């Protein structure tokens, strides 16, 4: 006679209650629906504590494994796995679990049932080996991640995260040794506010570990900071291991365990991770140093006034600093990654070329033997090139200017020597006057050469004194009024013109040169107007002519040494390009200045400013 269904349920319940193996059932929401007495004995929790709750026996690091097992047996069949489960006292135990699905009569999933068998010694050993192999594989993955990371804070955070994961610790941290202090630079499982906490090294656990000469240290909860104990009320054991950087202690890795103490496996993992931490930190520090060095080199290259170009072994541009872009007019983004847009000299050689922009550059090429790279230095030599050309023109012009009066003097002197008796008094007087006039011109030319040389070396000497500028202007103008029948010189001096603070002789040279230029560049004659007035703390003198004027763009250049107007009619007036250069330097030596302006209607206005005596402080 068959047993009634209710009787069958009673039999099943009795079998479960009497079973020697722990039996646990969970519903599709993973809540415990069955927890037999054997489960109470094996794990330490009573049925009343766990029914309707998530099973507390699964370690965090094995939850993914548990989910995978349940998924595999969902549709039917049974799966047996060897793994570890957590007891109420915090100990991990080795078990073998036979997991089966539970379905109703219609095939709907009611949950899963697991039968837990304590593992025998042989099985435990095999499980231990399997677990160790898993830890080794995971440790290898962690080490690979650490070695790939280059940011130091991220390295330390990865280390503490891996420590908690692999050892099953409740929390972890990394303290860095800074002199006689310790700074908590990484935390896992602890409040973030503790990061950056600084304590004294002396009498700390790290100090004790350093003095012990051991790689790891176990200590009780009482040795841990009160703030950490407050966050982990069940704290039982702390373990720490030293990390070294270049054979010197760099810091210590902490593992904190609540309700249990660390075993041999956890200590071994701690020691390994601490050692790998030193390597990873060393890599990160070396990388940071390399980045700083590269940044320094880049800053030096970018701030260089010379253009710097780096080509790789294949001749492709890899660096093109701002100065190179400025000199060539080509931005880096148009050049990098391509062949150079310039002809590059051979390594160890120099080359001077003119760019399309008109800039002259001197290029020096050097090769880096270790990499085959070429480093090319571009230096702007436009000004030097222009000065060189100006000097060539000056030498040619000076030779011409010197040859003309010398030839005239030599010719008239020879005539007087050879034909003195045949010449009348008037002819002899005219010849002597011509010789004298040419000698004066020659003397002025030599004086300009000497002044130009002194001005170029900054050796112009002036004596600042107070004198009457009006009287000097009258004397200068009077001397020029008799020099030309084509020119008329007008002088307008403001009444009560104050005295000037300057050098009489230097100012006389300036006025003479300005008046001479006004005559020279007004070949058809006309009025030259000289005006003087006070303007604030300065005295202003202008010399205005109605001559050929100044070419556009040359108003500043006419004061450069050896500059001469090569275009238009200006070149036919001769000169060696030193007059206005000397004028500018003499004015500046007196704390004044001189400038050129175009006169409305044609001609030039030269404006001289000198400090008034009442404002000079001399």
Explained architecture:
By secondary structure, the protein is α+β, with helices and mostly antiparallel strands. The chain is built from 16 helices and 23 strands. It has a six-stranded antiparallel β-sheet. Strands 2-1-5-4-3 form a five-stranded antiparallel β-sheet. Strands 13-12-16-15-14 form a five-stranded antiparallel β-sheet. Strand 10 and strand 11 (248-258) form a beta hairpin. Helix 5 (121-148) runs parallel beside helix 9, helix 11 packs antiparallel against helix 12 and helix 12 (425-456) crosses helix 15 (579-589). The longest helix has 40 residues, at 264-303. The protein is rod-shaped, with a radius of gyration of 50 Å. 26% of the residues are buried.
Identify the notable features of this structure and list them briefly.
single chain; 618 residues; alpha+beta; 6-stranded antiparallel β-sheet; 5-stranded antiparallel β-sheet; 41% helix; disordered N terminus
Low-confidence runs: 1-5, 566-573
Estimated structural class? alpha+beta
Distance between the termini: 138 Å
The strands making up the biggest β-sheet line up spatially as: 8-7-6-11-10-9
What is the oligomer described by this structure? single chain
Largest sheet: 6 strands, antiparallel
Roughly how many Å is the radius of gyration? 50 Å
Count of helices? 16
Helix amount: 40-55%
Shape: rod-shaped
Q: What's the total number of strands?
A: 23
> Into which percentage range does the β-strand content fall?
25-35%
Mean pLDDT figure: 79
């Amino acid at each position: 006679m068959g047993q009634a269904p209710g009787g069958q349920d009673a039999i099943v319940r009795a079998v479960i209650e009497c079973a020697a193996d722990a039996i646990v059932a969970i519903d599709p929401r993973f809540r415990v629906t069955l927890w037999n007495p054997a489960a109470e004995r094996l794990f330490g929790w009573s049925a009343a504590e766990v029914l309707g709750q998530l099973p507390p026996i699964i370690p965090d690091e094995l939850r993914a494994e548990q989910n995978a097992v349940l998924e595999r047996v969902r549709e039917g069949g049974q799966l047996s796995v060897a793994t570890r489960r957590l007891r109420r006292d915090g100990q991990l135990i080795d078990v073998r679990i036979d997991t089966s699905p539970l379905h109703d009569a219609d095939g709907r999933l009611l949950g899963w049932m697991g039968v837990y068998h304590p593992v025998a010694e042989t099985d435990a050993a095999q499980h231990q080996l399997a677990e160790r192999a898993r830890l080794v594989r995971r440790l290898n993955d962690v080490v690979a991640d650490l070695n790939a990371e280059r940011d130091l804070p991220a390295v330390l955070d990865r280390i503490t995260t891996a420590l908690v994961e692999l050892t099953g610790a409740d929390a972890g941290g990394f303290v860095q040794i800074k002199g006689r202090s310790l700074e908590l630079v990484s935390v896992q499982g602890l409040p973030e506010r503790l990061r950056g906490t600084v304590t004294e090294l002396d009498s700390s656990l790290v100090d004790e570990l350093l003095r012990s000469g051991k790689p790891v240290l176990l200590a009780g909860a009482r040795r841990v900071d009160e703030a950490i104990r407050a966050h982990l009320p069940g704290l039982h054991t702390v373990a720490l291991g030293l990390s070294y950087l270049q054979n010197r202690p760099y810091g210590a890795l902490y593992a904190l365990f609540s309700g249990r103490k660390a075993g041999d496996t956890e200590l071994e993992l701690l020691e390994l991770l601490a050692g790998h931490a030193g390597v990873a930190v060393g890599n990160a520090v070396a990388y940071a140093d390399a980045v700083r060095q590269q940044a320094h080199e880049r800053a030096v290259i970018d701030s260089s006034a010379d253009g710097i170009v780096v080509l790789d072994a294949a001749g492709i541009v890899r660096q093109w600093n701002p100065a190179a872009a400025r000199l060539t007019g080509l931005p880096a983004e148009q050049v990098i990654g391509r062949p150079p847009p310039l002809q590059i000299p051979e390594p160890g050689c120099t080359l001077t070329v003119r760019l399309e922009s008109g800039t002259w550059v001197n290029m020096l090429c050097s090769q880096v033997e270790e990499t085959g790279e070429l480093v090319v230095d571009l230096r702007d030599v436009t000004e030097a090139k222009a000065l060189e050309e100006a000097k060539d023109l000056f030498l040619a012009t000076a030779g011409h200017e010197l040859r003309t009066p010398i030839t005239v003097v030599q010719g008239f002197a020879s005539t007087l020597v050879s034909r003195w008796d045949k010449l009348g008094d008037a002819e002899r007087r005219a010849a002597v006057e011509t010789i004298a006039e040419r000698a004066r011109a020659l003397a002025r030319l030599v004086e300009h050469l000497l002044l130009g040389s002194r001005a170029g070396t900054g050796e112009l000497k002036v004596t600042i004194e107070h004198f009457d500028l009006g009287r000097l202007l009258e004397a200068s103008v009077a001397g020029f009024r008799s020099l030309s029948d084509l020119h008329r010189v007008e002088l307008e001096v403001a009444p009560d013109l104050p005295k000037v603070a300057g050098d009489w002789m230097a100012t006389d040279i300036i006025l003479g040169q300005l008046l001479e230029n006004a005559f020279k560049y007004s070949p058809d004659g006309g009025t030259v107007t000289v005006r003087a007035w006070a303007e604030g703390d300065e005295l202003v003198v202008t010399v205005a002519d109605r001559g050929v004027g100044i070419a556009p763009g040359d108003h500043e250049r006419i004061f450069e040494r050896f500059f001469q107007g090569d275009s238009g009619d200006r070149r036919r007036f001769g000169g060696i390009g030193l007059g206005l250069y000397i004028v500018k330097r003499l004015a500046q030596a007196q704390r004044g200045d001189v400038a050129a302006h175009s006169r409305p209607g044609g001609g030039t206005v030269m404006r001289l400013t000198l400090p008034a005596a009442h404002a000079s402080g001399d």
